[in-house]
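Hi there,

I know you've been waiting on this one. I reran it after we fixed the sequence typo, so this is the corrected version. Both the input and the resulting structure follow.
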Amino acid sequence: MDNLYKPVHEKAVTPLKVHLVDNPPLFAWVEKEYFDFTGDKNRLDDLLNKKQYLQKHFNWFAQAKSGERFACSPQNIHLNSIGDDGFTWTGGASGMDNTPRGRDAGGYRNVLWVDAISQQALSARCIADMEQALGNADEAKKWNIEYEALKNKINHFYWDKKEGFYYDVAISDKQPCRVKTIASYWPLLAQVASREQAQSMVRHLMNPEEFGGSYPTPSVARSDKDYHHQTGDYWRGGIWLPTTYMTIKAIEKYGYHEEADAIAEKVISQQLAAYRNIEPHTIWECYSPSGNAPSTEHGRRVRPEFCGWSALGPISLFIENVLGFKEVSAARKEVRWRLKKNKGRHGIKNLRFGGIATDIVFDGKGTVSVRSNASYSLIINDSNYSVKKGDTEIQL
């Protein structure tokens, strides 16, 4: 992470290149996840109190202007801040290269992107949480105020009451640009949606004519005129693990665990089938919305050996949603397990968080066997069990 912060915010000279400085601003989310697993307050102190990298990036993103240059990047900035209302972006810079977003408003530069402002809200929320963990109450309050302002703006401008969906909006009249894409689930990850709004978004997500069905989370809704049924044509229906992961984690914030787990299992099963049946036997950049095959980009098959983010399926989604280890907190010394008894014997060995290393295995009948080098709390389906150093057996 420092290899990104230092050339961008300290102008450090490095042989590394930051391909797109205005790619999605996910640093705060990543650092929050890292802290949850490590409990490393020294890292937080250096990050937030001394270097203030996250604050600098948030403030830079909020004021970014198209055409800006960084010595560490081969490309100009594409992001453009439009007053306090949001941001214009481009397909490549946002990460959604050939997305049809902005189609009905005349192009990318004519709409405010719902994911850009929602990622800012997510960053503010994560910074507030990390400041609170450091005991910086005043700073946490400041960032919570920033978060609430963004939350109100997102719900005022980007929520379409008519369809019950978050959309990009036209700059000219602030009306929704009704191109349904998976980017509209970023507001849920940032937890700016109400319970009612989240319920509506989940209905769209599970609808087989939109984002649901046997191959869930296509990047464009199946009902959209630019949806490419056969292969997804990259961001015109292709299933991408980073946005799938985001969407699953987003609906979990509102308690939709069964739906999240069902999506995860379908997507991982698709990855496994493609791995087994297609040569080379590999993990692909993105997948078809209609079969167990990779997607295409401009007519050619997408990139193989793409574990940069597609490994989110067989690693993160497998551990978190198939095995059910939903949350780990080193600070609280806590593991939260959504155990599915009908899956038979399963569990995880050598799970490490903070200074704790533990094995947690369900025998398929009614006993959970735990081995740990230190004590912690194991929460199984909302019941709290105390794990001690050594071996612990839990009768469910």
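Quick highlight: The chain has a mean pLDDT of 97.

Best,
R. S.
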